[in-house]
Every structure is written in C-alpha cells, then in structure tokens.
Amino acid sequence: MNYSLFDFLQLIGSLGIFIFGMKIFSEGLQKIAGSKLKGILSGMTRNRAAGVATGFATTAITQSSTTTTVMTVSFVNAGLLTFVQSTGVIMGANIGTTITAWMVALFGFKFQITPIALAIIGVFFAFLFSGNNRLRNIAEAMVGFGILFIGLEFIKGSVPDINTNPEIFMFLDAWTDYGFMSLLLFVGVGTVLTLLTQSSSAATAITLVMLFEGWISFPIAAAMILGENIGTTVTANIAALVGNVHAKRAARFHFFFNVIGVLWMLALIYPFLHLMDFVVNQFASTPISVMEGAAESRANATLALSLFHTSFNVLNVLLLFAFVPLLVKFVEYIQPDRGGDEDEFHLKYISAGPMTSPGLSVEQAQKEVQHFTDVIDKMHASLSELLFDPKADRAKLLEKIAKYEEVTDQLEIEISDYLVRISEHSSMEHELTGRMRFMQTMVNDLERIADIFYQISKISERLEDTTGWPESALEEMKKMMEAVGAAVVEMRSNSMKAPYAVKLDQAIKLEQIIDKVRDEARDNHYARLEAGEYNARSGVTFIDILNRLERIGDHILNVNESAAGRRLKAMRIDGK
Questions:
Q1: What's 358-575's CATH class?
Q2: How buried is 250 (Cβ within 10 angstroms: 0-12 exposed, 13-18 middle, 19+ buried)?
Q3: At a CB cut-off of 8 Å and minimum separation 6, what does 231 contact?
Q4: Torsion angle defined by CA atoms of residues 117, 123, 128 and 134, in that order, rounded to the nearest 10 degrees
Q5: 162: helix, coil or strand?
Q6: Cβ-contact 504, 564 below 8 angstroms
Q7: Average pLDDT, stretch 192-218?
Q8: Least CB-packed of 2, 26, 77, 158 within 10 Å?
C-alpha cells in the first residue's frame, strides 16, 4: 500500500476545503435572501402542503437541511411556529437537501467544472470588498460555490486509487460480503459520517466520491445515503435539548419521520435500486448497469445515487403525509408537556444559538426582548398586589418579585451575550448593527426597571401594609401605579414592532402623565406632612416609592426610544 499519512492529511484538507466552500456558499445565499427568509418561513403556517413547499424552498436557499431544521426548531421554541406547523417544513427540508447531491453529481463527475469554478472566483473575488452589501453577498455566494467544487476536485484527487491500493478495497469488501447485514452496517456508517462532518451535504459528497472511485458498490452507497438521512436529524435534536417542549417535539418528529422512511426503504431497497438503474440507463448515452460496478458506469452511478436520494425523500413525504397526525400524537406521547411554568424562567427564544442569517438572529433577539418586557409587566402586577391588596400573601409576593428580578439579571446577560455573538460571527449591514446597539440599551434599561421594582418591594417591607397612609395618599399611589402600568403596556407593544413602525407620541404622553402625577402627589405629600396626617416613617416610604416609580417612567421612555431606533434628545438637536 503506497498511501501515506501525508496523503491522508491531504484528503482531510480537501474535505475541509469542500465543507468551507459549502459554508461560504450557504451563508452568502442566506445573506442574499436576508429578511425574505422570514417571509418564506411565514408561508408554512397555512397547511402542511405549504409547509413542505416552504421547507424545500428554504433548504434550496440555505443549501443546508440542517440549517432549515435548526431554524425551524428555533422558531417553534420562539413560538413563531407550532409543532404541527413545523412538520411540513421538516418534510420539505428532506427533499430540498437532495439538490446538493444533484449539483455535485452533475457538475463534479459528469462535467469538468473546476476551470469554470476558478473563473467564477476570479470574476467575483474583487466584489468581496465592495461597499454594496448585496453585491458583496452575491460575490460571497459565488466564491463559495467555486471553492466547493475545487474542494470536490481535491477530494477526488486525494482519495487512494483502488488499483494501486488494493488493500483498501479488500478491507471494504470484507464488510460488504454479508448481504443485507452489510446494508444495515453501512446505514450506520452513513449516520456516523454525517455526525463527524456535521453536514449531510459533505457526507453525501464523500459517498459520491467513494462510489465514483469504485470503493463501494451502488447498493452500499445507497445504504450510506439512508444513514445520512438519519444523521442529519441529530443536529436539530441537539439544538432542541435546551429548547422548550415544542422544540423538542419538532426535533423528535424529524428523527422518527426519517427513521420510518429508512425502514420501509430497506425493505424494498433491491427492487428500488434496480428501478433507479433502469431509469438512469434510459437517458444514458452508453447504457451500462450501475449495479455491476463497472468503471465505465461510475459517472452514471453518481446520477443514479442522486436519483435514489431524491426519489426516496419525495416518496417518504408522499407515503407518510397522511400519517403525520398519528406520528404527531406518538411524539406528543413520548415527549409530554409537563405543564406548569417549567419554561417560564429561562431564555425562551435564543437558546438554540445564533442563526447563520444575522437578520433572523436579530429577530430571535427581539423576541427575547419581548419576553423581557413580559417579565416587567408581571413584576408591576405583583407589586400592585403587594401595595394595595390587604389580603395578599406578602411573603409569597416578595419572593415572586425577587425571583423575577433574578430572571431579569439572567436575561440581560444572556441577551447581551447573544447580540455580541451575532456581531462576532456575521458581517452585517449598518442598519442591523444599529438595531443591535439599541437592543443592548433596551435590555440595560429593562434590567434597571426590574431593579427599581425590586427595591420598591423591599421598601414596602417597612410597612406591614399601606394602611399607614391616609386615603388620599393611597389613591395617589394607585394613580401613579396605573400610569406606570399604562406605560409598561405601551412599552410591550413597541418592543414587538420593527423600528420604523414605532411611534413615540403615545410613549411621550404617558411619560408626561407619570411626571404630572408624581408632581401633584409630591405637593400633596408635603401638605399632609405639615398637617400631621401620617407619621414621618410612612411619609418617607411614600415619597421614596413615588420617586422611584417616576424613575421607572424615565427608563420606560428610554426603552421606547431604543425600540424606535432613535433618541428624542438627538431629534430635538437635529430639529434646531
């Protein structure tokens, strides 16, 4: 055997170039699509058939079924999709991923595309430095496309030749001589290969090269393709580990759907492979059975394998489409919803990590900011009950507010960290960069609001209840809390909108109401003190809480400004 360690390292490097090219190609396509991806994904909400089309289209754009399924799991986790709606997308993604196999089989083996790939890189390389974002993204996709096929050519040149290295063929042949058991074994090999490369596209390319070079027979290659269909589900299941129950169900559905497909295909694999052989030879210029493994038929064999890959996934969707409700019930049975608030006190929407598309990542972050405002609203409700309900369980409410405050500390850290990770892994447009900066200020202000609510709850411990305040003071505090509550509601509404849709007029009006109520209550407070209507301790507590609530109003206005992507102070200066 004349295949050295250095030759093996060249093979690994060639594989690295291929995967790198696929990554650059995929990211470039996603950046070109930009916000359109979100629009495409919204189409999946109509019905399962639309979901299948959406999954196919999204995978065609991203060139990665893993990206589509992880994105889908993230959207289910974010509440943008239901578990049932996600099933169609996952089925469509299985079909969409076969495009890569056709691309590799046609351009990598039937045609000599390497000179064209180099020319494409030569044409588009200069545009990588363009100031035009769209042109730069197109250039990135095309350069990635070129690198992908150069990597494939390197792989073909780096694999050991069977004729000069018969030991490799003998080693593989020893495992392929067990009939149907060999197919089962190589299903496992395909699964492991996908796990190692973390890309079903890369695993499929390796399988096509092995078939083309004569390492493995057509049936063994088909078995590996089936294994790769199982392996591609693992990444989504890993992403769902930290997700909620609905995200876990979406990932489990993907796994069971593909496993069931592999099982029925294994039962029919030999007649099905002969059918693929027959179909390919009908269109081949030199009909030679790919089942025989002759050297002359290997280019046709790669086409037959791509046809097998597509046919299997299309048929699997058609056969199981009607049984999806039963599979959904089975997944819900093995992954039950425990109920309660088990998902309430953790990051809901960004737990699966940043997406390749920065636009979608920012959307995920905005959903988490909305969650943050929900927690603030709950804190306000709990504090109102603490201050004004004499029958309330004060100890329980104090504990709840303290718990909410801990959650907001975690939210601030995790959202900020997530936004930093997006900026580190993505080259973004100026608009997205500015939006992320405003999100950072939003979470800072929201955390400060939570701190002040918590401080007010601790201050209220000085009083057993608010009966130490005269009726007029109690009514004024209720009025202040209602004004703050209205501002919180407006803040929640604005946090859900895109910056261009946020109008600040109402937010400004509500902040002015808070200031007015504070001023009136403060004047009345001093009059009550002079009249001796309450003791000094109750009076100090009243004015302390009042001032802190006014500061909350200021922070709420800051959040609204950040949601709108502009500062009122800057606007006033510009106006002058």
A1: mainly alpha
A2: buried
A3: 190, 191, 192, 193, 194, 195, 200, 203
A4: -100
A5: coil
A6: yes
A7: 80
A8: 2
CA 150 to chain centre: 30
Q: Which residues contact 100 (CB under 8 A, 6 or more apart)?
A: 22, 63, 201, 204, 205
Do residues 289 and 297 lie in contact, with contact meaning Cβ atoms separated by under 8 Å?
yes
Tally of residues, the chain:
576
- Taking only the tens place, the pLDDT of each residue in 221-277 is 899 999 988 988 876 777 667 666 777 888 888 899 999 999 999 999 889 988 888
Q: 219: closest CA among 190, 241, 193, 243? A: 190
In angstroms, rounded to a whole number, what is the distance separating the alpha carbons of residues 38 and 207?
33
Q: Across the chain, which distance is largest between two alpha carbons, in Å?
A: 107
Q: What is the rounded distance in angstroms from the CA atom of residue 444 to the CA atom of residue 434? A: 16
Distance CA 11, CA 150 (A): 13
More confident residue, 112 or 154: 154
Cα separation, 89 vs 49, in Å, equals 9
Instruction: List the end-to-end C-alpha distance of the chain, in Å, as a whole number.
Output: 82
The CA angle 364-367-370, to the nearest 5 degrees, is 155
Domain boundaries, the chain: 5-334, 358-575
Q: Which residue has the tokens 């063994």?
A: 220
